[in-house]
Amino acid sequence: GDSVTQMEGPVTLSEEAFLTINCTYTATGYPSLFWYVQYPGEGLQLLLKATKADDKGSNKGFEATYRKETTSFHLEKGSVQVSDSAVYFCALSPSGTYKYIFGTGTRLKVLA
Amino acid sequence: GAVVSQHPSWVICKSGTSVKIECRSLDFQATTMFWYRQFPKQSLMLMATSNEGSKATYEQGVEKDKFLINHASLTLSTLTVTSAHPEDSSFYICSARDSAGALSYNEQFFGPGTRLTVL
User: How much is the average pLDDT of B41-48?
Assistant: First the structure.
């Protein structure tokens, strides 16, 4: 079945460091791909999305590119801030459905 | 726009009692809402898909008699945990999809979650 695999955390970085959180998926057809962020004590917020191959989603300095050939959607940010500390979830929505399948989440901690 | 609320934000109940959690789409109509369960430091597990005016569709392994879902209007879905036990303690999150299509295709909008603690 369809699935999402995320790198295990926690990831601890110093402020202004470069961030990569890996996400790979297994799905038939062309799913939509998403990154959500969950700040402590809050619900999930959409960070960015991509709906077709080679699309690049970007928001708040974060970006991810839909790579069909490697079935990946890695999240990157050039310079993280303390305020980016949160849990990041990669998710896919299979073609023809509105369901989401989430990865296990990656906790990011940014130190000042 | 695209705000989803949940009520209550947290609830503590005694074992054997039932608890109702509400999920509302505040500024859009949602024929489809989803209920998730999130265990500490783990991912979200889809429990069921709630369809306005019809029965919910439950994922494999989720007891439909234990987790009753009602979606009586285009802006409200409720999840009732019946005869709750300590193992039902969890963070329950709902999401909604804009049925009119005015908002982003295929995107779900998430509520802030409800933390249930069963003593």
Answer: 86
